[in-house]
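Structure ticket #2291
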Amino acid sequence: MTDDSLREIIQAREKAKRDKEFRDWCEQIGAIPSDFELKLGGGLVADLELQPARWLTLGLDLLNSSRGTFAIQQLGSGPTPFMSSFLPYPIFQLGSEIFLKGLWLGQFEECRRITHFSYVDQSVRMRYAVRLKKELGHDLLRILTLVRQAECYQRDPEIVRFLKIVEGIVRRYYFPLYKADKVSSQWAHSRYPKRFYDDAGKQASADAFQSHPPQWLIVKLFASVERHIEKLWASCNG
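Resolution: structure written out below.
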């Protein structure tokens, strides 16, 4: 038996094993009763996280998760390199919103001082939840404006530059899609995929506006600020 033949046999067995595991898992999950609910023990409730570093990490994870690829890569074969990926609007909107709100939370010492096991009173959680929803909302440019108002960031050239670049990204790559959201009173619409409609001509296109920033550049931008902001917060705490 050749090495190639042996390799093919091993790969076939592994595939069969994974396929069985997948079928078994689907059967188990599909059999869960429709009234089943996970319940937290010990009187625990899942509520708002106020540790800003966790917001930054989650936002960066979202920005890093895109599967968008440039059309020229789609013509080829094999996996598309990360360097050739782009960020579709819904992913950028989600990731950058959470990251920027983490920056906003980071201006408050009581948030920066939260550790893994810190308890935050329910009234405090509610106060920040209301501000995050009503004061910041989901308008990226408005969120940028409010983050800029934090005195601790106004004195930091790197954060000032970062916020200006993010605003440029919104305006250069996403503004036509972003602007469409402003006519809706439903905040969730800002996260929906967009189609381009010509209501006068009764026509539409799924890809009438091709403008995508390279994913690796945005990830590098946000990651560098995540590293920098941790040092800035540490100096604030000191």
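Closing remark: Residues 71-79 have pLDDT under 50 and may be disordered.
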